[in-house]
Amino acid sequence: MQELEERIQSEGTVKEGNVLKVDAFLNHQCDVRLFDRMGAAWAEHFAGKKIDKILTIEASGIGIACVAAQHFGNVPVVFAKKAQSINLDGDQYVTSVYSFTKQKEFPVIVSKKYLNAGEHVLLIDDFLANGKALHGLIGLCREAGASVTGIGIAVEKGFQGGGDALRAEGYDIDSLAIVDAMDPATGEITFRH
């Protein structure tokens, strides 16, 4: 998606340790119009596929998934929580995932009332690096008896291999911008097309 690549080029910041900061428009301050165009792009890519629900993980995926859902007939958005709370009652699907940006492991929890057998689920997230978060969400879907119809990603760090591994496993991934390389010294970011 040309517009997203241009925003990454103009407003993104490359940090040491393969960190790409895009918090000016994607995961701290949210450009809702951009999210809407991203949702339209995913709707075009996944057109004709049955999607009953969108699943994401808190926190950065929530806004993107909610805006994108409007392009899928207003299907419900469920977000996996990263911490147990008193608001989570009843039976739950639980796994743990390692966060690349936080450099630690988190529990990932979805109430069993909101993820059901036979549902066709679209996973949406802001970043795909090594694929750990997505594997966690895929595991929750598998445990629930739901099938993953596809995966929509805003920014994939192609050089970290998570997307390639998931594609090799047969998942239909639509990453709107795939970063091929980034250099913290120069700030240069190149994209895979």
From TrEMBL:
Pathway: Purine metabolism; XMP biosynthesis via salvage pathway; XMP from xanthine: step 1/1. The gene is xpt. Belongs to the purine/pyrimidine phosphoribosyltransferase family. Xpt subfamily. Converts the preformed base xanthine, a product of nucleic acid breakdown, to xanthosine 5'-monophosphate (XMP), so it can be reused for RNA or DNA synthesis. GO terms for biological process: purine ribonucleoside salvage; xanthine metabolic process; XMP salvage. The keyword Disulfide bond does not apply. Keywords: Cytoplasm, Glycosyltransferase, Purine salvage, Transferase. Xanthine binds at L20, N27, K157. It comes from the Bacteria. Pfam families: Pribosyltran (PF00156). InterPro entries: PRTase-like (IPR029057), PRTase_dom (IPR000836), Pur/Pyrimidine_PRTase (IPR050118), Xanthine_PRibTrfase (IPR010079). 5-phospho-alpha-D-ribose 1-diphosphate binds at A129, N130, G131, K132, A133. It catalyses: XMP + diphosphate = xanthine + 5-phospho-alpha-D-ribose 1-diphosphate. Signal peptide: none annotated. Its main location: cytoplasm. One of its GO terms (cellular component) is cytoplasm. Its EC number is 2.4.2.22. It is found in: Cytoplasm. Residues 41-157 form the Phosphoribosyltransferase domain. One of its GO terms (molecular function) is xanthine phosphoribosyltransferase activity. This is Xanthine phosphoribosyltransferase. The lineage of its organism: Bacteria, Bacillati, Actinomycetota, Actinomycetes, Bifidobacteriales. Homodimer. The keyword Transferase applies. It comes from Bifidobacterium angulatum DSM 20098 = JCM 7096.
